């Protein structure tokens, strides 16, 4: 009897011991994970408010900084976009760095997060974006704009650091700054470094053939004639997208070239009030606005805000648009100076009507192809990839031009918007129809390349 009781007690105690040991093991494992294997918050868990504020400031800085014509502005947006994306990419599920995907970037070693350490990706992005902005505008950055950037950085650093461990704050800030340093070094090798100091790239002589560009205003030399030699982010955006030769130059009234010029002449002569409004709406003149690329980024930022996109989605979106806009201007400028085509106003005044006047000012560079058409063609493809199933169908109203005194304009499709942007150059009298149609074609191909050739993360909120 006693023996059986002892056996039962022993068995009961053994079972209890095993259960207690198992519970202790679970508790220990849980504590261990909490203390050493815990993960940083994902990029999707952060608000995009601060990065949207930076893009608003980029627009203002472009507008008020000497030397930032459309190509220079697109380049600044380009590298800022890379830096802010690289600062958060490790916090996005299945995301891949751009380092080994962009032309010439692989030889620049980006920092990597320290294994087992925690990071605040928003703090890293704040530091990277602010530093990269100062790098890209650098020697021409006004004291007022520098102060605004510094103020944004301090304000958001303090806001994002609230309640965060000091070690995480300092580690994340240093990480973002190091990202910006590497991206800046990469930018210095593309052929456009400090181009804002000499945007006209003098000396340069325009050939004297009758089909060639001639000055259309007070500026007697064309803008950035060697921009097309800059390194693109994707080689295919130069090698595979260049426009075909335009129709042969001719002054014969039955020639295709003369007919192109007559379309411009007749359109401007018979413009409706809305067409005149469209021409001015999309003019996006440098130093009066933040240039065509800035308009496109403003549209993107507005939609991201309306969609309440997270930091992950916003960073991805800005990175995509950055690659597309930078390469659109390089590719377009290569075509412009391969063909050096005379502007419609110069041709029409010489061969059709000496009293012809354009609706908006003709910028100082060759006609073929249209920079607006190219950049917005690229931008439309990026917007379609971000907010539609590829159809481009998206109801929205562009409020970004209210700051310049325009009424808002509404669209139901990104392709429709791109076409209006291209048509605006015809309504304005500054581009032939072929400049616009081929510019759109080139731009859309560039946008498609950015969407398809880069490994982007999927299903980002």
Order of helices and strands: HHHHHHHHHHHHHEEHH
Portion of residues in beta strands equals under 5%
Largest sheet: 2 strands, antiparallel
Q: Radius of gyration from the CA trace?
A: 28 Å
The 3D shape can be described as elongated
Structure in words:
The chain is mainly alpha-helical and 461 residues long. Helices cover 56% and strands 2% of the residues. It is built from 15 helices and 2 strands. A two-stranded antiparallel ribbon has the order 1-2. Helix 10 (291-306) packs antiparallel against helix 11 (311-339). The longest helix has 36 residues, at 2-37. The protein is elongated and about 75 Å long. The model is unreliable at 1-37 (pLDDT under 50).
What is the strand and helix layout of this fold?
Blueprint: H1 2-37, H2 49-63, H3 70-86, H4 121-137, H5 143-161, H6 166-187, H7 236-239, H8 256-269, H9 273-281, H10 291-306, H11 311-339, H12 344-351, H13 371-387, E1 393-398, E2 409-413, H14 414-427, H15 433-453
Antiparallel strand pairs: 1-2
Helix pairs in contact: 2-4, 2-5, 2-10, 3-4, 3-6, 3-10, 3-11, 4-5, 4-6, 9-14, 10-11, 10-13, 11-13, 11-15, 13-14, 13-15, 14-15
Question: TL;DR of this structure?
Answer:
The chain has helices spanning about 1-35, 50-65, 70-85, 120-135, 145-160, 165-185, 235-240, 255-270, 275-280, 290-305, 310-340, 345-350, 370-385, 415-425, 435-455, and strands at about 395-400, 410-415. With about 450 residues, it is mainly alpha-helical.
């Amino acid at each position: 009897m006693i023996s059986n009781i002892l056996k039962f007690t022993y068995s009961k105690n053994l079972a209890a011991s095993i259960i207690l040991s198992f519970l202790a093991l679970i508790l220990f494992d849980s504590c261990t994970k909490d203390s050493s294997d815990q993960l940083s918050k994902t990029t999707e868990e952060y608000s995009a408010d601060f990065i949207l504020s930076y893009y608003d400031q980029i627009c203002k800085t472009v507008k008020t900084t000497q030397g930032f014509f459309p190509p220079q502005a697109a380049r600044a947006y380009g590298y800022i976009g890379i830096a802010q994306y690289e600062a958060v990419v490790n916090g996005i599920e299945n995301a891949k760095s751009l380092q080994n995907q962009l032309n010439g970037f692989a030889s620049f070693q980006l920092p990597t997060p320290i294994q087992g350490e925690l990071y605040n990706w928003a703090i890293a992005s704040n530091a990277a974006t602010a530093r990269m902005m100062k790098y890209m505008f650098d020697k021409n950055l006004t004291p007022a704009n520098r102060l605004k950037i510094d103020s944004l950085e301090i304000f958001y650093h303090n806001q994002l650091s609230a309640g965060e461990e000091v070690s995480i704050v300092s580690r994340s800030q240093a990480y973002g700054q190091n990202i910006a340093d590497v991206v800046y070094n990469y930018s210095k090798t593309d052929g456009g470094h400090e181009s804002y100091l000499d945007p006209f790239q003098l000396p340069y002589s325009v050939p004297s053939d009758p089909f060639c560009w001639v000055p259309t205003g007070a500026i007697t030399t064309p803008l950035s004639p060697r921009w097309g030699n800059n390194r693109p982010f994707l080689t295919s955006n130069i090698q595979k997208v260049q426009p075909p030769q335009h129709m042969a130059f001719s002054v014969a009234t039955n020639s295709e070239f003369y007919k192109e010029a007559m379309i411009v002449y007749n359109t401007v002569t018979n413009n409706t009030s809305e067409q005149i409004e469209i021409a001015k709406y999309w003019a996006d003149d440098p130093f009066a606005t933040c240039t065509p690329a800035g308009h496109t980024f403003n549209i993107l930022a507005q939609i991201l805000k309306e969609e309440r996109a997270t930091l992950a989605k916003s960073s991805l979106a800005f990175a995509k648009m950055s690659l597309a806009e930078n390469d659109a201007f390089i590719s377009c400028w290569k075509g412009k100076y391969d063909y050096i085509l005379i502007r419609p106003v110069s041709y029409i005044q010489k061969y059709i009507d000496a009293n012809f006047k354009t609706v908006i000012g003709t910028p100082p560079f060759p006609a073929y192809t249209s920079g607006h058409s190219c950049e917005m063609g690229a931008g439309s493809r990026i917007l379609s990839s971000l907010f539609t199933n590829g159809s481009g169908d998206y109801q929205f109203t562009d409020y970004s031009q209210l700051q310049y005194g325009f009424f808002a304009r509404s669209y139901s499709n990104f392709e429709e918007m791109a076409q209006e942007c291209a048509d605006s150059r015809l309504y304005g009298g500054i581009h032939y129809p072929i400049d616009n149609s081929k510019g759109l074609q080139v731009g859309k191909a560039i946008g498609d390349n950015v969407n398809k050739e880069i490994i982007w993360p999927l299903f980002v909120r």
